[in-house]
Request: fold
Amino acid sequence: MKDFILIDSQSSKPKYQQLIEFIIDSIENGNLARGQQLPSINEVAQTFGMARMTVTKAYDELRERGLVTSHHGKGFYVNSTDTRSQLNVFVLFDSLTPYKEILYDALVAALGESVTVNIFFHHHNIKVFDNLILNNLGHYNFYVIMPHFNQDVSEILSQIPKEKLLILDIDVPSFGDEYAILYQDFEQNIYQGLSEAKDLIMKYQTLSLVLSSKSFQYTPVGIINGFKKFCTEYGIAFEIIPDLEEEEHLQKDHAYLVFRENDLVRFINWSNKKSWKLGRDIGLISYDDTPIKEILAEGISVISNDFHQMGLRAAEMITERQKGRFINYCSFIKRNSL
Reply:
């Protein structure tokens, strides 16, 4: 078989990944059958000028997927021809909010029914985050992690082999392009989204950012930076409200940017009690779109990432073992609340 292995030394794709994909392709097209012996690690390493560790890494990955088995002193053999059923994915989110449910559903659907996906939640508790990762190391052959913390968690994430890790939604700047990272640029997203809505925002006296700091809702520091940058650049009066707990927080002719679903519902109820019409007497922007926001109160304006697309892209990066840093862009969607 080693005479037919194709390894492109000029490709940006790692050699171990090329070897994995070649063996999987050979199984799928029938060139490798169950029980057939693979070339030894030494044979592949010598033929293609690869380090033994590189070949070992590829064979270990195939063995973890259940596609290859090894017999001491005899070598490696094809164990299964079902190339997808062995993918077992660990997913760690902060919480299951409506937009993350869209992301998760798209991810699971794109991976397919033959892939096992188990989801866990850390609720922004760093100890829970660390323990969930530590206690599940070695039990899965791929890990999708949403590290929603305003602190460096790279040491914790480094416990996971980089070839088995997809970092989702949040960037980890200290990691290089040998990692798989699909993230939102929160500072740029909020700045760009508010800039697209500038003419609508300008008709209000003040723009307020509601953080909901007492809830499990996570507000990346980039959101605050992008918000301040927009307001300062365009001379818009602004304030940052830790929580929307009292009806008196709402003022007529002011606009508000909210994150938490409970704050959204509370805002609408209080506005209705005061007989204020959204988009005329008071302005409202929500962050992250969900289907209900399209019809709630005649439509809620949002700045939102495309979470369905993020789920599809994440599945593609997992199945094709893509590495690198990729941004999932967002946009402003104008509706009647602004």
Q: What stands out?
A: The first helix runs from residue 15 to 28.
